[in-house]
Task: structure prediction
Amino acid sequence: MSYSKRIDVLCSLLTAAETFADVGCDHGYCSEYMLSKGLCKKAILSDISKGSLAKAERLLAEYIQNGKAVSVLGDGFYGVPSNTDEVLIAGMGGSEIVDILSDKKYGFIPKRFVFQPMHDAEKLRRYILDNSGYIERDFTFEDVKFYDVIVGGKAEDKTTEPYTDAEYEYGRENLQTMPKAFIQRTQKQLKNTNAYLSRENLQEESRAALEEKRKRLEGVLSGEIK
Result:
Protein backbone atom coordinates (compact mmCIF):
# COMPACT_ATOMS: atom_id res chain seq x y z
CA MET A 1 0.00 0.00 0.00
CA SER A 2 1.17 3.54 -0.77
CA TYR A 3 1.18 5.80 2.29
CA SER A 4 1.36 9.56 2.68
CA LYS A 5 4.74 11.24 3.10
CA ARG A 6 3.96 11.75 6.80
CA ILE A 7 3.31 8.04 7.34
CA ASP A 8 6.40 7.16 5.29
CA VAL A 9 8.58 9.37 7.51
CA LEU A 10 7.14 7.84 10.69
CA CYS A 11 7.60 4.29 9.37
CA SER A 12 11.19 5.03 8.38
CA LEU A 13 11.96 5.80 12.02
CA LEU A 14 10.52 2.56 13.38
CA THR A 15 12.84 -0.35 14.14
CA ALA A 16 12.46 -4.09 14.61
CA ALA A 17 10.76 -4.97 17.90
CA GLU A 18 9.20 -7.99 19.55
CA THR A 19 6.16 -5.92 20.51
CA PHE A 20 4.98 -2.68 18.93
CA ALA A 21 2.17 -0.40 20.08
CA ASP A 22 0.46 2.21 17.91
CA VAL A 23 -1.36 4.49 20.36
CA GLY A 24 -4.02 6.58 18.66
CA CYS A 25 -3.65 4.24 15.69
CA ASP A 26 -6.45 5.66 13.53
CA HIS A 27 -6.27 3.67 10.24
CA GLY A 28 -3.47 1.42 11.51
CA TYR A 29 -1.10 2.09 8.62
CA CYS A 30 2.06 2.08 10.73
CA SER A 31 1.09 -1.19 12.33
CA GLU A 32 0.45 -2.63 8.88
CA TYR A 33 3.95 -1.53 7.89
CA MET A 34 5.53 -3.18 10.94
CA LEU A 35 3.61 -6.42 10.49
CA SER A 36 3.91 -6.70 6.72
CA LYS A 37 7.68 -6.12 6.88
CA GLY A 38 8.09 -8.67 9.67
CA LEU A 39 9.47 -5.98 11.96
CA CYS A 40 7.41 -7.03 14.97
CA LYS A 41 5.98 -10.27 16.25
CA LYS A 42 2.97 -8.59 17.83
CA ALA A 43 1.28 -5.23 17.33
CA ILE A 44 -1.08 -3.49 19.74
CA LEU A 45 -3.59 -1.20 18.04
CA SER A 46 -4.91 1.35 20.50
CA ASP A 47 -7.39 4.19 20.11
CA ILE A 48 -9.93 6.02 22.25
CA SER A 49 -12.24 6.30 19.25
CA LYS A 50 -14.32 3.22 18.46
CA GLY A 51 -14.70 4.36 14.85
CA SER A 52 -10.97 4.88 14.34
CA LEU A 53 -10.13 1.55 15.95
CA ALA A 54 -12.66 -0.17 13.67
CA LYS A 55 -10.76 1.13 10.63
CA ALA A 56 -7.54 -0.39 11.92
CA GLU A 57 -9.31 -3.64 12.77
CA ARG A 58 -10.63 -3.93 9.22
CA LEU A 59 -7.21 -3.21 7.70
CA LEU A 60 -5.44 -5.69 9.97
CA ALA A 61 -8.19 -8.29 10.35
CA GLU A 62 -5.98 -11.14 9.12
CA TYR A 63 -3.21 -10.30 11.59
CA ILE A 64 -5.74 -10.07 14.42
CA GLN A 65 -7.20 -13.45 13.49
CA ASN A 66 -3.70 -14.95 13.45
CA GLY A 67 -2.91 -13.56 16.89
CA LYS A 68 -0.21 -11.19 15.58
CA ALA A 69 -2.20 -8.07 16.43
CA VAL A 70 -4.62 -7.11 19.17
CA SER A 71 -6.91 -4.08 19.31
CA VAL A 72 -7.54 -2.10 22.48
CA LEU A 73 -10.31 0.48 22.89
CA GLY A 74 -9.17 2.90 25.56
CA ASP A 75 -7.39 6.08 26.50
CA GLY A 76 -3.61 6.48 26.50
CA PHE A 77 -1.60 3.45 27.58
CA TYR A 78 -4.61 1.49 28.77
CA GLY A 79 -3.99 -2.06 27.56
CA VAL A 80 -0.38 -1.31 26.58
CA PRO A 81 2.14 -3.16 28.81
CA SER A 82 5.02 -1.08 30.16
CA ASN A 83 7.52 -3.61 28.74
CA THR A 84 6.35 -2.97 25.16
CA ASP A 85 9.50 -2.64 23.05
CA GLU A 86 8.47 0.24 20.81
CA VAL A 87 5.64 2.76 20.96
CA LEU A 88 4.36 5.17 18.32
CA ILE A 89 2.16 8.12 19.23
CA ALA A 90 1.41 10.39 16.28
CA GLY A 91 -1.09 13.11 15.55
CA MET A 92 -1.76 14.22 19.13
CA GLY A 93 -0.75 17.40 20.89
CA GLY A 94 2.45 17.36 22.92
CA SER A 95 0.46 18.09 26.07
CA GLU A 96 -1.78 15.09 25.37
CA ILE A 97 1.27 12.86 24.94
CA VAL A 98 2.69 14.15 28.24
CA ASP A 99 -0.64 13.32 29.90
CA ILE A 100 -0.36 9.75 28.58
CA LEU A 101 3.25 9.34 29.73
CA SER A 102 2.58 10.81 33.17
CA ASP A 103 -0.71 9.05 33.89
CA LYS A 104 -0.44 7.72 37.46
CA LYS A 105 -2.04 4.38 36.65
CA TYR A 106 -0.84 3.50 33.14
CA GLY A 107 1.90 6.00 32.25
CA PHE A 108 5.55 5.16 31.50
CA ILE A 109 8.47 6.17 29.28
CA PRO A 110 8.66 3.46 26.58
CA LYS A 111 11.86 1.49 25.93
CA ARG A 112 11.85 3.14 22.50
CA PHE A 113 9.40 5.65 21.11
CA VAL A 114 8.52 7.68 18.04
CA PHE A 115 6.39 10.71 18.97
CA GLN A 116 4.90 13.11 16.44
CA PRO A 117 3.31 15.97 18.40
CA MET A 118 1.02 18.35 16.52
CA HIS A 119 1.98 21.20 18.87
CA ASP A 120 3.58 21.77 22.30
CA ALA A 121 6.71 19.90 21.23
CA GLU A 122 8.76 21.92 23.73
CA LYS A 123 6.65 20.67 26.62
CA LEU A 124 7.10 17.09 25.42
CA ARG A 125 10.87 17.44 25.06
CA ARG A 126 11.13 18.81 28.59
CA TYR A 127 9.02 16.01 30.04
CA ILE A 128 11.03 13.28 28.33
CA LEU A 129 14.40 14.60 29.48
CA ASP A 130 13.13 15.41 32.99
CA ASN A 131 11.76 11.91 33.47
CA SER A 132 14.54 9.45 32.64
CA GLY A 133 14.15 9.55 28.89
CA TYR A 134 16.64 10.25 26.10
CA ILE A 135 16.24 11.82 22.66
CA GLU A 136 18.20 10.59 19.62
CA ARG A 137 16.32 12.33 16.77
CA ASP A 138 14.33 15.56 16.95
CA PHE A 139 13.47 17.30 13.69
CA THR A 140 10.84 18.98 11.54
CA PHE A 141 9.50 17.63 8.24
CA GLU A 142 6.86 18.77 5.78
CA ASP A 143 3.87 17.05 4.22
CA VAL A 144 1.51 19.91 3.24
CA LYS A 145 1.80 20.93 6.93
CA PHE A 146 4.93 21.06 9.08
CA TYR A 147 5.43 18.32 11.67
CA ASP A 148 7.85 17.69 14.51
CA VAL A 149 9.02 14.17 15.30
CA ILE A 150 10.90 13.09 18.42
CA VAL A 151 12.62 9.69 18.62
CA GLY A 152 14.16 8.26 21.77
CA GLY A 153 13.48 5.96 24.66
CA LYS A 154 13.97 5.17 28.31
CA ALA A 155 17.44 6.24 29.44
CA GLU A 156 19.01 3.07 30.78
CA ASP A 157 22.40 2.92 29.09
CA LYS A 158 21.84 5.95 26.85
CA THR A 159 21.94 9.60 27.83
CA THR A 160 21.23 12.93 26.20
CA GLU A 161 23.45 15.95 26.70
CA PRO A 162 21.41 18.66 28.47
CA TYR A 163 19.30 20.72 26.09
CA THR A 164 19.61 24.50 25.90
CA ASP A 165 16.42 26.55 26.16
CA ALA A 166 16.59 27.09 22.39
CA GLU A 167 16.90 23.33 21.77
CA TYR A 168 13.86 22.71 23.94
CA GLU A 169 11.91 25.29 21.95
CA TYR A 170 13.03 24.43 18.42
CA GLY A 171 14.58 20.95 18.58
CA ARG A 172 18.29 20.11 18.81
CA GLU A 173 18.61 18.48 15.40
CA ASN A 174 16.83 21.40 13.75
CA LEU A 175 19.29 23.92 15.19
CA GLN A 176 22.32 21.77 14.40
CA THR A 177 21.44 20.77 10.83
CA MET A 178 18.82 23.38 9.78
CA PRO A 179 16.69 21.08 7.59
CA LYS A 180 14.75 22.72 4.77
CA ALA A 181 11.36 22.15 6.40
CA PHE A 182 12.51 23.76 9.64
CA ILE A 183 13.85 26.82 7.81
CA GLN A 184 10.61 27.16 5.85
CA ARG A 185 8.48 26.87 8.98
CA THR A 186 10.63 29.40 10.84
CA GLN A 187 10.41 31.83 7.90
CA LYS A 188 6.63 31.42 7.90
CA GLN A 189 6.48 32.05 11.65
CA LEU A 190 8.60 35.17 11.23
CA LYS A 191 6.35 36.45 8.43
CA ASN A 192 3.25 35.89 10.58
CA THR A 193 4.89 37.59 13.56
CA ASN A 194 5.76 40.64 11.47
CA ALA A 195 2.18 40.77 10.19
CA TYR A 196 0.85 40.82 13.75
CA LEU A 197 3.34 43.54 14.71
CA SER A 198 2.10 45.72 11.86
CA ARG A 199 -1.37 45.87 13.39
CA GLU A 200 -2.51 49.00 15.14
CA ASN A 201 -3.79 49.16 18.70
CA LEU A 202 -1.65 46.26 19.94
CA GLN A 203 -1.39 46.23 23.71
CA GLU A 204 2.10 46.98 24.98
CA GLU A 205 2.44 43.55 26.56
CA SER A 206 1.44 41.79 23.34
CA ARG A 207 3.77 43.95 21.26
CA ALA A 208 6.70 43.25 23.58
CA ALA A 209 6.06 39.49 23.41
CA LEU A 210 5.84 39.58 19.62
CA GLU A 211 9.02 41.63 19.32
CA GLU A 212 10.83 39.12 21.51
CA LYS A 213 9.49 36.28 19.36
CA ARG A 214 10.67 38.06 16.20
CA LYS A 215 14.12 38.49 17.69
CA ARG A 216 14.35 34.77 18.52
CA LEU A 217 13.16 33.70 15.07
CA GLU A 218 15.63 36.02 13.36
CA GLY A 219 18.35 34.64 15.62
CA VAL A 220 17.48 31.08 14.65
CA LEU A 221 17.58 31.86 10.93
CA SER A 222 20.88 33.73 11.25
CA GLY A 223 22.47 30.92 13.25
CA GLU A 224 23.00 33.12 16.32
CA ILE A 225 20.60 31.01 18.40
CA LYS A 226 21.66 27.41 18.87
Observations:
- The chain is about 45% helix and 25% strand.
- The mean pLDDT is 96.
- Residues 32 and 60 are 7 Å apart (CA to CA).
